[in-house]
Every structure is written in C-alpha cells, then in structure tokens.
Amino acid sequence: MGEIITQPLAAPVIQALRSIGYNSQTAIADLIDNSVDAKATKISLCFSYNEGNSSIKIIDNGIGMDEKELQTAMTVGSKDPRDKRESKELGRFGMGLKTASFSLGKRLTVVSKKASKFSIRCWDLDYVSKENEWLLYKSIPVDIELDFDEIQGDNGTIVFIDKLDRFSGYGTNNIIKSGSFFSKVNRIQKYLEMVFHVLLEENILFLGINDNMLSPWNPFLESSPRCYEGEVQHLQLNGKEVVVTPYVLPHPATFNKKEHREAGGIKGWRDQQGFYIYRENRLVSYGDWFGLFPRDAISELVRIKVDFTNEADEEWKLDVKKSTVTIPEDIKEALEAIAKYYRHISHEIMLYRTRASRSGEKVKGSLNTWELQSDDNISNYVLNRNHPVLTNILKNLDDGVKRKVNLYLKLIELGSPNNLLKTESMVKQDRQTIDENQKKTIIEYAGIIVNSGVEISLDQISESISLMNGFESIEIHTIQDIVKKEVVASVKF
Ligand SMILES: Nc1ncnc2c1ncn2[C@@H]1O[C@H](COP(=O)(O)OP(=O)(O)OP(=O)(O)O)[C@@H](O)[C@H]1O
Ligand SMILES: [Mg+2]
User: How far is the CA of 65 from the CAs of 46, 60, 100, 118, 120, in angstroms?
Assistant: First the structure.
C-alpha cells in the first residue's frame, strides 16, 4: 500500500479553526486559563477601543516562555490532548491560545519574557491566507505598538490581539460603536467574575479589566447565612472522585431589590438554577439540568456544585472551549437523585410562601390569588378558588353564569405567564418533539373553548394556541391534529 504525506492547507484550516464556536466570553476565559496555568497571580486585561483598529491585551506575571517554548505555544496543536496534565492544570488540547484568539480577531502577537529575556511571535491571518502557508512572524509588525515594560518582573507574557473582525467588526461595514464595545467588555467582566470566582475568592488571583478589579460572584451565596448548604457527596467515576455540594438559596422575597438582581447572576434566577460544573475550581458549565428536569420557577432556588479534576476530562467530554461538558452515564442517576431531592426543598420553600396566609386564623383559606400545585416533576400555578372574594361573587350567581366564570378562570390559569414560561423551557430542550405536558395543555385549552359554546372554528382555536407564548415552535397542523383527534372527536355537537 502506498502512502503520501498530505499536509492540510493553511488558509482553510485557519478559517475553520476560527469558527469552532467560542463567544467573546469563553474565548477570553480560555486565554486567562493559560495565564493561570503559567502561575500568574496578576492578570490585566485591556480592551482598547479605536474605530479603525481596536485591540485586546492580556498581561500576566506568570512564568513566561523562552523562544522555543513560545514557538511551540504558537503551533496549532502544540500538545497532545491525551497526555497527562499536571494536577490543577487547566489546559488540555494545545489549541486554546490560537483558537480563542482567532475567534476574536485576525492577528495574534505574543511577547513573553523569561529570565529577563524577551521572545516574540505573531500570527497574521491575512498573511497566512494570502500565502496559504503556516508563516509565523518572529518580530512585531511595525503598526503595532507594545510597551514591553508592561511586563514588570523578570517573567511574564503579553497576549495582544487586534484586527478584531469578529469582536468589533474590524475591516467590515459594521464596526461596532464604542457603547456596544464597552458593554461587551462589561458582560465579559461579569462572566469572568463567575467563572473564576473560586480563584478570586481565595485571593490568589488578581484580575483586572481596564483598571476595574474583578470581584468574585458566588452562585451559592455562600457568604449568606440564610443559604442552605446540603450534604456533600463524593461520587466515584472510574476511580476518580466527583464532589457534589447542593445549595438551596433563600426565597427571593427575602432579598432587597439590588441583592435579588445580583443573586440572579448573568441569566437571571430561573435560568441560573441547575448544576454548576467545576473543573479544577474553574466553572465550565452553569445553570443547566442537562435535560433531566425543566427549569421551572419553583425550582429556581437550587444550584448544585459539582467538582471534577482534569483526569476525568475524557469522561466529561470536555470541549476545546472549556464551556461544555456531558454528564457521564455512570453518575447520571446519582446526580438526578440528588437534584430531585433538593428541587423538592426548593418547591417546599416556594410553596410555603405562596400558601402562607398573612391574616391569621380568622380567614378561612388563604388570601393568595395564586397557589402552587405540584407533584414530582410538574408544577403549575392555579387560581385560589377558595379566595373569600371569589366565593362571595360566585355565591350570588346563577349556575349558567357561574359555569362561564369558572371556564374563564381556567383559561386564565392556562395562559398564566408563569405556567407558559415553564412550558417554554421544555420546548427549548427539544424543539422537535412535542411533550406530554404541552399536549395536555393544548387539549385542555381547546376543550374549554369548544365546551364553552362560543362560536369559534377549529382553525381559530389552533391558531390562538400556536400564538401562545411557548408554543411558537410547534407547527400549526400538529396543533390542529391534536385538537381534531383529542377534542373535537369527543364532543357531541
Ligand atoms: N500566558 C502564558 N504564559 C505562559 N505560557 C503560556 C501562556 N499561554 C500559553 N502558554 C503556553 O502555550 C501552550 C499552548 O497554549 P494553548 O492554550 O494553545 O494550549 P493549552 O493551554 O496547552 O491547551 P488548551 O487548548 O486546552 O488551552 C500552553 O500549554 C503553555 O505552555
Ligand atoms: Mg490554553
């Protein structure tokens, strides 16, 4: 059998590598990982806006690289992902420096200082594309101004990225305005405060962006005495330990407005519930039940910390971007059981609040207009039919009107934004299939309208359902089929 060495072409490979799916937040976090791996204790990020050519600069006081190490570092695929990494090391694939930088811009310049000696390398993708060769500059392009003194000690590294076509529209007709440039920077700051919160809390890492010092955002509000920390569990995964620490946050009503917003984090309370997966104290995935449960409002108090070490990267299917993992089958059941238990506690806290009557013993039943009905997985807000005002009104109505009022109340329940939001979160998980809950809601909704005696066609009913929040992704003929089969067939006209 003959064989022939077949080198990949530089231009297409580089273009493809730019698109492996980083966003600016995950890209910057991956670059910070490198500085942390280099034992940096101080990392300064500098985002500089300039309509023509904005830039991103990361300066660290880590161990730095000599000429040979820098040459290797700039190579695409500089280390074998299968090699054992040092304990606590965040790198894995030998790609991040290049792929993360190129997802932001077309030019990556690295100046590194080791034992007081400087080394320089620079990738300019315009040049690589033009020549279609892996040609790496050994000096700084003339149009880049870098102050080497920004590395203050004997060791350290400057990573400089410009020609930011992806980050800020360099070279396109859509150069972003300074306002949106800096609001992106703001979002990056928030993201880093979450992802690196453990290191920031331990005060071993000082991280700054444009002269703002980052302060840790702790998802579990560990400093709050009102927060409930569950029992720590140690799971075994192929002989490697996974540590699970469940937390149940206090009821939202116990926060003031500012605290409440802050505790909501980047995505807000409901979407921040779920597992928080840490690899070597660095958050890789957050606010996700991995399809095991819906993200519903009454479970929003649960955040479960899961820690694994870099030895288990393979089992977790860690990706190059360090932003997604898959729960290993071996521990899925255990995690599901833990989550289920703490979701229950969250339900209890939320339920108690909703049910609690503030007016003491004299009033029969609660004065809440809405109450929460829940079983293991499903929970719905229903109107409190025993509300004294409502019972008083109904008492004075004749049966026909009473029936219509009740039907209308049922429609309000089905259309309650809370109930629909919950359904929406299920739709997001799997847009292709229609789940039993959605089907139930469709049948119930259509049934009530059909039975109300109001003149309305099958198409109108289906259309009104398809417009409901959370049902947009379901094709209208699917809804029509269900209504026809399950509702209309069972009604005698
Ligand atoms: N700021 C830095 N200081 C010192 N060395 C660095 C720095 N950034 C990168 N390196 C060196 O360059 C190498 C390549 O970095 P790169 O991010 O491409 O891969 P990695 O960190 O090994 O793995 P991953 O692709 O998972 O990030 C690193 O292994 C490290 O040796
Ligand atoms: Mg790296």
Answer: 21, 12, 19, 9, 10
